[in-house]
Known about the structure:
Largest sheet: 2 strands, antiparallel
CATH superfamily: Winged helix-like DNA-binding domain superfamily/Winged helix DNA-binding domain
CATH architecture: Orthogonal Bundle
Strand order of the largest sheet: 1-2
Oligomer: single chain
Distance between the termini: 28 Å
Structural class: mainly alpha
CATH class: Mainly Alpha
Strand content: 5-15%
Number of strands: 2
Amino acid sequence: MQESPIEHSNQVMGGTVVFRGTRVPLQALMDYLEAGDRLDDFLRDYPTVTRAQTIAALELAREALQRNARAS
């Protein structure tokens, strides 16, 4: 099984969900996308996060939304 691209720990930013191995909150990516910014803009501004991590995190979010929609 592949390691999750995100993690949360009380020792890292008080338990905020971050990209694994960084202190970059997942919410930062969501804020960029909500504002209409491109993924490349986010990656330029947060060089410790990889493109693969962002794509994997977005796929996790999509899967969670699909599971939630099926459960409703």
